[in-house]
Amino acid sequence: MKPPSFEYAAPDSVPDALRLLQENPDEASVLAGGQSLMPVLNMRMAQPRLVVDLNRIRELTSIESAPDGSVRFGSMVRQHSLETEPIVRDRLPLLTAAAHHIAHLPIRFRGTVGGSLAHADPAAELPAAVSALDGRLIVRGGGGERSVAAADFFLGPLTTAIEPGELLVGVEVEPPPPGSGSAFFEVARTHGAFALAAAAAVLRVGDGGNIDHIRLGLAGVGGTPYVPGWLDELALGEAAGDALFRRIGDRLAEEVEPFDDIHATASYRKRVAGVLAARALAAAADGADGQGRR
Ligand SMILES: Cc1cc2nc3c(=O)[nH]c(=O)nc-3n(C[C@H](O)[C@H](O)[C@H](O)COP(=O)(O)OP(=O)(O)OC[C@H]3O[C@@H](n4cnc5c(N)ncnc54)[C@H](O)[C@@H]3O)c2cc1C
Question: From the CA of 218, how far away is ligand 1's center (Å)?
Fold first, then answer.
């Protein structure tokens, strides 16, 4: 299949890209890695008059450390860089672990961090991992730049808080407290397929042996990444162990509301999500999945 014809622009700066988007607010699509956009165009699910290619914009390709220790990723950082860049592997091993599960290497070489987040597929790994880490999405438009919490960014399947005429320019992620472990577990039909369900976990056991930091983000269990709001109340101050992790997994399995689709039933996804969450928490507690502690 071929895409419909469109005009093409490849600006080399963010202001130029924004100008093009603002001149064509409802008729332009942004091209990042093209790994989701091109299939969408080929299937004629979108027919933009103009495609604005971001691949010449150097300023969107950097990974920088901020003075407060957080890491800022330009939206055009390739997904594969999450697996190879020392700053990511050292400070945010959860993103490295999540990236391993995205598709196949050629797709991760082209696919971008910003493209995955802006595309907002509910079964995608990065939105769940960034949500578990309380990341902030940096969106720029005519009115300047705004920083949107992951919890407010993902609005539904393939729907985000990016408005017409705006661009996702980056994502900012603060590493979990030192000594935290993290893990990303997934079940997919084949290696490299989108998750039927996946769990991203971050956990720290404090000096007294009890949990003093815990976060979870799930994929594949509804229209947006799922982050349970009751986790702190249930787990902070408790001893880390399988009984607690199973209790958390069972509660999640009861309350998430995934969809039935051709790949799996909703009830299967519920069950798998609960089990994965419990296992990811256990692995994060002992660093046993090889993603380590920081
Ligand atoms: C065979 C195959 C298997 C895949 N498996 C997986 C998988 O298992 N897990 C997974 O997560 N993904 C998977 N993907 C998708 C892949 O991760 C894509 O790279 C990702 O979804 C989109 O990133 P991209 O950079 O290619 O964006 P593009 O395809 O270029 O863009 C995707 C969408 O986001 C918009 N967009 C992109 N960048 C911006 C921006 N900076 N600001 C505003 N809007 C923007 C585009 O306009 C478009 O609507 C798979 C893809 C293929 C082809």
Answer: 19
Atom of ligand 1 nearest to the CA of 126: 11
The DSSP secondary-structure symbol of 77 reads -
pLDDT tens string, the chain, 294 residues long: the values are 788 899 999 999 999 999 999 999 889 999 999 999 999 999 999 999 999 999 999 999 999 999 889 999 999 999 999 999 999 999 999 999 999 999 999 999 999 999 999 999 999 999 999 999 999 999 999 999 999 999 999 999 999 999 999 999 999 999 999 999 999 999 999 988 899 999 999 999 998 889 999 999 999 999 999 999 999 999 999 999 999 999 999 999 999 999 999 999 999 999 999 999 999 999 999 874 444 444
Q: Which residues are near ligand 1 (CB < 6 Å)?
A: 29-37, 54, 75, 102-103, 107, 111-112, 114-116, 118-119, 121, 124-125, 162, 167-168, 193-194
What region, left, alpha or beta, does residue 50 occupy, with left being phi > 0 and alpha being psi -120 to 50 degrees? beta
- For 32, 116, 157, the CA distances from 58, given in Å and listed in that order, are 13, 19, 29
Atom number in ligand 1 closest to CA 112: 25
Index of the ligand 1 atom closest to the CA of residue 194: 8
Q: Is the pTM of this model over 0.85?
A: yes
- Helix, strand, coil percentages in the chain from 3-state DSSP, rounded to 5: 35, 25, 40
